[in-house]
Amino acid sequence: MDNNSFKDQLKLYLQRFWHWLRAILGRFGHWLRLVNQRFHLIRWCLLIGLVLFLCISVFYTYKAKTADVQNLKSALQTTTTIYDADNQKAGSLYAQKGTFVELDQISENVQNAVISTEDRSFYSNPGFDIKGILRSVVSYVVHRGQITGGGSTITQQLAKNALLTQKQTFARKLEEIFLAVEINRVYSKKDILAMYLNNAYFGSGVWGVQDAANKYFGKNASELTLSEGATFAAILRSPSFYNPIDHMDNAISRRNLVLDLMVDNGKITKTQADTTKQTSLALNDTYTQEDGYKYPYFFDAVIDEAVNKYGLKEEDIMNKGYRIYTTLDQSYQKAMQSAFEQNWAFPANAADGTEVQGGSIAINPTNGYVSAVVGGRGEHVFRGLNRATQIKRQPGSTMKPLAVYEPALEAGYHYDSVLQDKLTSYGKNNYRPANADNQYAGEVPMYVALAQSKNAPAVWLLDKIGLNKGVASVEKFGINVPKSDQNLALGFGGWGKGVSPYQMARAYTAFANEGKLANTHFIRKVVDATGAVIVDNSDLKSKQIISKKNAKEMTSMMLDVFNNGTGQTAKPSRYQVAGKTGSTEVPSSYGYGTKDQWIVGYTPNLVVATWIGFDSTDANHFLAGTSEQGVAPIFKLEMEKMLPNAPTYNFDTKSASTIAAEANNNEGSSGNWFDDIGSNIQDGIENGKNALKNAQEKANEWYNDVKSFFSN
């Protein structure tokens, strides 16, 4: 078949297809006209469209009316202030806020440049621009449901920056328009322009025209020249691309375009524009940032507690001028931060340069105040990973006092009870816990087993008192034990879920505070901009979970950890500290080392839990040696920096080794210190009181739950 024949044949087929398609479309059109005549289809479509438009309008009008537009200006002028435990200002929280100045303190050169580039009809439009909306609709269709920007008035941009997220969606665009109308109704154009210029980001880490004037040109916003004002309008287009510190050529090129736009808008003459284009930009950085977020990990934790526990919104916390009264001790916080800045106090980096990470937290055991927090080394990320409060790592032998030794005291054992120290198999799977040094004494007193962190006696004792008692004890200290981890490995912290330093520090408050588990918290009170108290933690109480006698006996044993046990190298000079070390081993194929290293130490008025390790452990990222080799230097440094600022203290007991030595030297004594009858009687009275108190607390919890259910 030649080409002409093929073309003729193809043309014939196309003509037939076209006739067939016209016939089908004709029939469909005829059917549609009949349906429309009978059912008024077009009218129904118009009606449904109008009803839908009305519903959308009502919905977004309601959202705009209920938004906090009335207080927008005051919110932009105020910052949320953080106070410490002594009600002294500790810093401030702010987002998208610079130094606020009124419009008469902003050069007209800036105002004219911004209006000429961002919104020429600003002084006449009702908050939105029809052409801009149409451009947004077209963009929405072209980009398949995503708005790429453009077409927003200054008022819309203010609504987006101050009241909405930056997510580009059609729904957010609609809300932005309705909010802009409401803002336009509430505020004058001068107020709107002032709020916009004070709320805009100008690159290089500065918000607001006043701070930007200091940052780039070393002057006030009222003093900016035509060239500088046009440059500011240029920066708004893309702060990272047009700021003159990083991209001078881009800034000048865009500035010149802005000058042409000002000519088109009648704000300056062409001669003024041409003359200004010939000038250079003289940079002069005199900006000094207020040191508001100077305790970053503590402030992060405050925000987390406000959001997760009290239901406040992050954007409200950052922008609405709250006064947040916290539990912060600034002297402790500065000391802890200073310690974490000393690289020598940490093990060496991995071969690829990865830093050993760490997290530490200090708690006042008498009132539950979290006094200081450091959640990591290196650059801080706002509300990023806080290793003091958020990680879950195996606690190692720091779990022994909670899971083994305290429940053993409750079961009738004493500090000097003799424990078996042999390599022993347990259960059907022949579980054989070994001591870290593979040395076994056959028998060992309890206080020695704890101080030397021996695994074999701890697991033997847990098996004797019963695993269920160990699990119940750990959960009594506020740490949930998953079913999968309820085995004898719990005796020395071998479980999958893990714990945070925050959880361990809270658990040890019971030993430091006569058996009372602290109700730990970061926030004491939150007051909003009107003066209303919206969070009040003034009535939080500790809960008695173990007897005062047992807490005292545990402390006597844990004093030996630092005096002559595994924590000797971590003991702060000139101070007595009780507590426990811990570590978790890596697979033998990695070499000799650990994955996690811990120390939890305390005095009667301070509990500190410190963890170090790599965020991700593998054959190339693990800690060489044991707890006292890795975590000891940083813990010792922290305590030596914090304890001089702590109240004077004395433990109400001697170390267990001292008590044992005195008992051996006093053979005529009818009993030892822990068996004192008067102490037992007093302890029985105390336990009775505690049981009654716990029952009352449980009843109150049930009542509050029922009350909350019906009130909701």
UniProtKB/TrEMBL annotation:
Reactions catalysed, as given in the entry: [GlcNAc-(1->4)-Mur2Ac(oyl-L-Ala-gamma-D-Glu-L-Lys-D-Ala-D-Ala)](n)-di-trans,octa-cis-undecaprenyl diphosphate + beta-D-GlcNAc-(1->4)-Mur2Ac(oyl-L-Ala-gamma-D-Glu-L-Lys-D-Ala-D-Ala)-di-trans,octa-cis-undecaprenyl diphosphate = [GlcNAc-(1->4)-Mur2Ac(oyl-L-Ala-gamma-D-Glu-L-Lys-D-Ala-D-Ala)](n+1)-di-trans,octa-cis-undecaprenyl diphosphate + di-trans,octa-cis-undecaprenyl diphosphate + H(+); Preferential cleavage: (Ac)2-L-Lys-D-Ala-|-D-Ala. Also transpeptidation of peptidyl-alanyl moieties that are N-acyl substituents of D-alanine
Residues that span the membrane, as ranges: 41-62
SUPFAM superfamilies: beta-lactamase/transpeptidase-like, Lysozyme-like
Domain of life: Bacteria
Residues of the Penicillin-binding protein transpeptidase domain: 361-605
InterPro entries: Beta-lactam/transpept-like, Glyco_trans_51, Glycosyltr_51/Transpeptidase, Lysozyme-like_dom_sf, PBP_transglycosylase, PCN-bd_Tpept
Stretches assigned to the Glycosyl transferase family domain: 92-262
Keywords attached to this entry: Carboxypeptidase, Cell membrane, Cell shape, Cell wall biogenesis/degradation, Glycosyltransferase, Hydrolase, Membrane, Multifunctional enzyme, Peptidoglycan synthesis, Protease, Transferase, Transmembrane, Transmembrane helix
Protein name: PBP1A family penicillin-binding protein
PANTHER family: BINDING PROTEIN TRANSPEPTIDASE, PUTATIVE-RELATED (PTHR32282), PENICILLIN-BINDING PROTEIN 2A (PTHR32282:SF32)
